[in-house]
Amino acid sequence: MRITVSVIKADVGGIGGHTLPSEGLLNAIRKTVKDAGDLLIDHYIGYCGDDSHIVM
């Protein structure tokens, strides 16, 4: 079986500057990853400042 590891980074801004992404954005990311169902074996959602990232 072949496996692809993908990393997506998004700098979409945050509330009050560059401190952290909004809870709405993080919830949208979580929902999108959850809706992927069996397409993903595992994932990690994180952020550094207002930059969000997903490792799949």
UniProtKB/TrEMBL annotation:
<dbReference type="GO" id="GO:0006094">
    <property type="term" value="P:gluconeogenesis"/>
</dbReference>
<dbReference type="GO" id="GO:0042132">
    <property type="term" value="F:fructose 1,6-bisphosphate 1-phosphatase activity"/>
</dbReference>
<keyword id="KW-0378">Hydrolase</keyword>
<comment type="pathway">
    <text>Carbohydrate biosynthesis; gluconeogenesis.</text>
</comment>
<keyword id="KW-0119">Carbohydrate metabolism</keyword>
<keyword id="KW-0456">Lyase</keyword>
<comment type="subunit">
    <text>Homooctamer; dimer of tetramers.</text>
</comment>
<keyword id="KW-0479">Metal-binding</keyword>
<keyword id="KW-0312">Gluconeogenesis</keyword>
<protein>
    <recommendedName>
        <fullName>Fructose-1,6-bisphosphate aldolase/phosphatase</fullName>
        <ecNumber>3.1.3.11</ecNumber>
    </recommendedName>
</protein>
<dbReference type="GO" id="GO:0046872">
    <property type="term" value="F:metal ion binding"/>
</dbReference>
<keyword id="KW-0460">Magnesium</keyword>
<comment type="similarity">
    <text>Belongs to the FBP aldolase/phosphatase family.</text>
</comment>
<dbReference type="Pfam" id="PF01950">
    <property type="entry name" value="FBPase_3"/>
</dbReference>
<dbReference type="InterPro" id="IPR002803">
    <property type="entry name" value="FBPase_V"/>
</dbReference>
<dbReference type="InterPro" id="IPR036076">
    <property type="entry name" value="FBPase_V_sf"/>
</dbReference>
<dbReference type="GO" id="GO:0016829">
    <property type="term" value="F:lyase activity"/>
</dbReference>
<keyword id="KW-0704">Schiff base</keyword>
